[in-house]
From TrEMBL:
Record-stated family: Belongs to the flavoprotein pyridine nucleotide cytochrome reductase family.
Flavoprotein pyridine nucleotide cytochrome reductase-like FAD-binding domain span: 2-33
Record-level GO cellular component terms: mitochondrion
Subcellular location: Mitochondrion
Origin species: Eutreptiella gymnastica
Lineage: Eukaryota, Discoba, Euglenozoa, Euglenida, Spirocuta
Keyword field: FAD, Flavoprotein, Mitochondrion, NAD, Oxidoreductase
One of the Pfam families matching this protein, by short name: NAD_binding_1
Enzyme class: oxidoreductase
Name of the protein in question: cytochrome-b5 reductase
Catalytic activity as recorded in UniProt: 2 Fe(III)-[cytochrome b5] + NADH = 2 Fe(II)-[cytochrome b5] + NAD(+) + H(+)
Superkingdom in the source lineage: Eukaryota
C-alpha cells in the first residue's frame, strides 16, 4: 500500500455510521465509494483570494483544500475562513487550523463564530451567526480574483447563498455583490 488516507469523523450519539467507525479496531476494513458528480472544483483554484464559509462538519472539504493550498510550494493564495460552530468544544480541527495559522499567518486567517457559547465562558471571539458585518470584516471583497467555498448545514446555505442544489446565487453573498460563478457549494 502506498500513502495514507485520513478521515475526520464526528461521533454522533445516535449516528449509526459514526458509532460503527468509532468502534472499529486497527486492521478492520471499511469500503468507500467515490461520487464523481460531487467534485465541485479542483486545485489549483486559479484565484489569489479564497474565502471559506464553514459550519460544523463542513470543515472537512475545507481542510482538503487547505492541504493543497498551504502545502504547495510557490502557491501564494490568501485564505480567509469564517467557521461557525455552536460552542468552542464543537470546533473540529481547531488544533490543525491553529497550527496552520501559526505557520502560514500571512496567508491564512480563521475567525470562529460561536452561536451557543455560554456567556460566562472565556471565549473572546465572535458570537452569533455568520452575517453581513462579519463577511465584510473577514472575507475578500467581491472581485475577479476571489472565489468562495461554502459547506455547512442547510440553514447556513439558505442564509449565505441559497440551497446547496440551487444554481442561482441568493442570500447574503448575492446581496453583497458576489457572482454565482465565484461561489462553490460543497
Amino acid at each position: 500500500m502506498v500513502g495514507k488516507f485520513e478521515l475526520m469523523v464526528k461521533i454522533y450519539p445516535q449516528g449509526k455510521l459514526s458509532q460503527h467507525m468509532d468502534a472499529m479496531g486497527v486492521g478492520d476494513t471499511l469500503n468507500f465509494k467515490h461520487i464523481p458528480f460531487n467534485v465541485k472544483t479542483q486545485y489549483p483554484f486559479g484565484k489569489q483570494k479564497l474565502g471559506m464559509f464553514v459550519g460544523g462538519t463542513g470543515i472537512t472539504p475545507m481542510l482538503q483544500a487547505l492541504h493543497a493550498v498551504l502545502g504547495t510550494p510557490g502557491d501564494t493564495t490568501v485564505v480567509s475562513m469564517l467557521y461557525g460552530s455552536r460552542t468552542e468544544a464543537d470546533v473540529l480541527g481547531k488544533e490543525t487550523l491553529d497550527g496552520w495559522c501559526a505557520s502560514h499567518g500571512h496567508r491564512l486567517k480563521v475567525a470562529h463564530v460561536l452561536s451557543h457559547e455560554p456567556e460566562g465562558s472565556a471565549w473572546r471571539g465572535e458570537r452569533g451567526f455568520i452575517n453581513k458585518d462579519l463577511i465584510a470584516k473577514y472575507m475578500p471583497a467581491p472581485s475577479d480574483d476571489c472565489i468562495l467555498f461554502v459547506c455547512g448545514p442547510p440553514p447556513m446555505y439558505n442564509a449565505l447563498c441559497g440551497p446547496r442544489d440551487q444554481k442561482e446565487l441568493t442570500g447574503l453573498l448575492a446581496d453583497m455583490g458576489y457572482a454565482a460563478a465565484q461561489v462553490y457549494k460543497f
